[in-house]
Design a protein that fits this description.
- The protein contains 13 helices and ten strands.
- It has a four-stranded antiparallel β-sheet, with helices on both faces. A two-stranded antiparallel sheet has the order 2-5. Strands 3-4 form a two-stranded antiparallel sheet.
Length: about 575
Amino acid sequence: MIRRNQTPPIAHRLFDLTISWHRNESGTVAFSIPVGLFFFMVFAGLLFNTGATINGKIETQNAADASVYSASVSIARGLNAMTASNHLIGELNALYVIHHSLGGTWLDDKGGQENNSPEIQAANTGLEIAYNIAKNSQPIPGLQPPYDRVKKNPKADANSTIYEGKLKLKTALAIAYGVHTAGWVMYEAGKALLPFPTTPAGVALMAAGVITQVAATVTELAIMKEYLVLEGLEILARSLSPFKKGIPGTIKLLYNYQKLVGGTNNTPSLFSTLAAKSAIKIAERNDAVAIPSSTLLATATNLIPPFPVEQEKTTKIDRSQLMRAAFPWVAYWTNNIAGTLKKPFHILGAPISGAGGSFEKWSEKYAYQSVELFRGDTSRNFQNELTRVNHNKANSSGSGEKGMGIKLYVMQGLNETDNGAGWHKSMEDFNDWDNRRKASTKIDQLFCHVGFVRSENQPKVGVRRFFRQENPDGFVCYAQSMVYNANPQQRPQRSGGGGSAQPTVGYDTLGWTAGAIEYPGKSSARPQIKLNWQAKLTPITPEKLLSKAQVLLTDASLRRSFWGGRESILILNNH
């Protein structure tokens, strides 16, 4: 307890001093609070406005990325569609060649009639004579069935595998009957020697005669079996003939589809238009407007994504895109079919007929003639083994066929490599491995797309008394995307032909990955295809941006957003 006259402790003195210190400063705290609140509100408004502006720019940039990427995805889909249609045309052409190699034009046009050509008549005459001689001299049964089968005439063209195989079997059977007769002569000669001292020689001669006749009989039965194989192929080919006849019309329809996909001199590519519309639609989903908008689409052609293909122009048939699409399949299927026909002990083998070699010959010839016909001018009439019945034979007929004018689409720049001896695929400017800058510039031109997107929503501005609207026309952002092919790519090399492999290129409208052989040649490798056109976002060069941004000068609001209203492009207000 503290007495009245006692000095207070130090704590009480400090308390009293504190009270006396504030006693003369009443109202100071009340004044500092609104000042602090004012600066706090200004700072909060600054943060809000900064965040709103950044958010608006990010949203607009995301819209630009999505819009441009969707456009390139459409272009990639179009290039995959073009590649697929090229292969469909090529494979249909190959099926046409395979079928025609079997039976030729006669089988398609004569409705199952026998081809009783002069050489068939001569072969039948020789066969009949040989059979009658053997029939009157044979001690071993079995001559009749082969003759009854082989004497039938082929129902195929003289320029075909079935015809040549059956003709050769007729000759082979006549020879076999001759050998059969020779065996009978040997047997009878040996038999005549039995009463004489040369009996052992007679027995040996009789044995040799029997062996010869047995061997001839086995050969005759083998010939009959091969004839049955060829007849089976003939029946199969006749049953498929209506489908084969529809192949040229189907190819024409696919080619018309290609012209929609790739465009012509008078019409733009369908997928370029779809890409522009896709870019507009995706931008709208992100509350933005793609440029070109629907009103600018007709005039802003330099902003429509490029579709980097054109129709082939080379006159070199064996290096045309159609040949390169078709022949790998022709070679692969020919290898399997001819290889089977050449096997002596296979149920479908026919080595005596030579059908395997004949099929190889005609498939190679018809591969060239079919590509020549399909690519030929519609005003030109083609008369050859492919288009006429028994061409260059005594009983030939037909007036030939008109060309179809089908020029498949290739990458832009391939036509420029044609020096008169054919294309040099993989040596286009965009494939220049030694001049990367030139290649990059060409790729930038052909495969890259720049798009602009405008957000018409002004970012909200807080504390308007102190902060003005810095983006009264919204935001304009840009992005670039490209289409590319992820298939393997090898350093350019001139294809020597004659069975060498086609160049391995990624940027192409064929998409081979392995096993693609040049014409002419043989290959047992199955061709492999991969539709691998893809899209991705890429950085943009200032030169590309300036070249594409000129169109923005046509719109005053865009000009204000992008360049602050200036008529010339000096400093880009990016985003």
